[in-house]
Amino acid sequence: MRRQIPPVSCLVLLAAAFALHAAASAAPAAVAVNVTGVLSVFPDLSDFTRLLASSPVLAELAGRSSLTLLAVPNGNLPQSPSAFAAASGADLADVLRYHVLLEYLAPAELRRLPASGKLVTTLFQTTGRAPADLGAVNVTTAGASLAVVRSPAPFLGSNVTVLGAITAVPYNLSVLAVSGLIVPTGFDLAASESRPPAAVNITRVLADARAFNVAASMLEASGVAAEFEDDESGAGITVFAPTDDAFAGLPAGDRLQSLPADRKAVVLRFHVLHSYYPLGSLESIVNPVQPTLATEFSNAGRFTLNITRANGSVAIDTGVVQATITRTVFDQNPVAVFAVSKVLLPKEMFTRTAGGGGGGGDSSIVAATAAASSPPSAATAPEASESARTPPTKLSSPPALRGGGQDCDTASAPAHGIGIGWWCIALVYLLPHLNLYTGREGR
Fold first, then answer.
1. pLDDT tens-digit series, residues 50-90
2. From CA 359, how far away is CA 124, in angstroms rounded?
C-alpha cells in the first residue's frame, strides 16, 4: 500500500515551483514607454515636452521602445522653435523627429563609442524624405562632455553637445540633455506627410545608407529584393544586412560569391525574418530560434536563426557564424533593417572544418559540397498554398505593436506569458520526482 507524501516534502516542491514563477515574473521585457509621462517630472524640460506633445511625433513614439531622446532644456531652446526650424528650411515636427534616435544609448554606451563615432538612425529617416544617410546623426565622444551629435551634412545648427543624462528606463528609453535644437537637412520639402506610404525599396535603403553596397547589389541581382514588397503588405519583414566590411572579412574558403544563383538567393533569404520586429522586440526575445524566409522554401526547423541578447547587444547565431546587430539602418512598420557584423551563413550550406582552430573562428568555415544541403529555390520549389508554409515563430513585441490599447507603461502581458511557461516547466520537472517518491514509499 502506497503511503501519502509527507506534507513537508510537498511544501518543499511547491516552494521550488513558486520560486521559478517569481523569477520568471521578474524577468525584464522591452516595452513601449510613455515618453511625456517620463519627461513630465523634469520642470526644466517642460517647453520641450509641450512641443513634443503638440506634434504628430508623439503618436509615432507610442509603439516604439529602445529609443534615445535628445531633449533640449528650457534655457537652450530658441525663443520661437517653429520660426527657428522654418528659418533653416525645416518643419518643426521633422526637427523633433531628428531628436529621437532609434537606438538605446545610455552614458555607458556613449563611453564605449569608437573614436570615429557611430552613425545612429533617427525617427526622421522613417519619413522617406531623408536622402542617403541624412536621416541619421553621427554620435562621437568629445573630451569632458559625454558626446557630440552631428548631422552628416555640416551646416549652421548641425551639431549639439550632450550636456548630461536626465533619466533612463533601461533598454527602453534614454533621455539625454543637449545644448540646442539640431536641424536635419537635405530632405524633400515638397513631400507631403499625409501621402500614403509607398512600399519600402530595401535595395535603395541599403544603397542610401552607404557601407552596404555588396548587400544591395546582391539583392538586386538575385531578384530576392522583389519578393520583399509582398511580405511588407502582410506581417512585414526584418532584414539583417551585413556591411561591406562583413563581406570583406569572409574567409577564403566560404565561396559565397561562386555559389549558383539559386543557392546564393537562399543565403540572402536567410538574412530575413517574415515579420516586422523593432529592436526592442529582438532584445526581449522569448523564443530564440526564429525561422527565416529561407525556411519557407525548405522543411520546418531548417535555416533558422538563434537570436539572443548578450553583453548589451542582440546576438545572432547561425550554427557556424556568430554576429551582432551593430546599428539600426531603417525602422518604420512594417519594415526594419539592421546592420550586422558578419555575413550570416546557414549551417545547412556551410560547415566548420577540422584544423581551423587556434581561435580562428570563421576562418574554418567552408561551403558544403552536397547539393542536397540547399533547399529548392523559389522557382523550383514544389507548389504549395500559403497555409502550407511554416508560420514564423513570434517574438515578444511591445504591447502597443500588438494592439488592444494596453497601457504602454506596463509589461503585464509578456510577464504573464513567461510566467505560465515557467509553471509548465516546473510541473514537468516535478512530476517524475513525485512519482518516484510515491513508488519508493509504496515499496
1. 999 888 999 888 888 889 999 999 988 887 787 667 666 67
2. 42
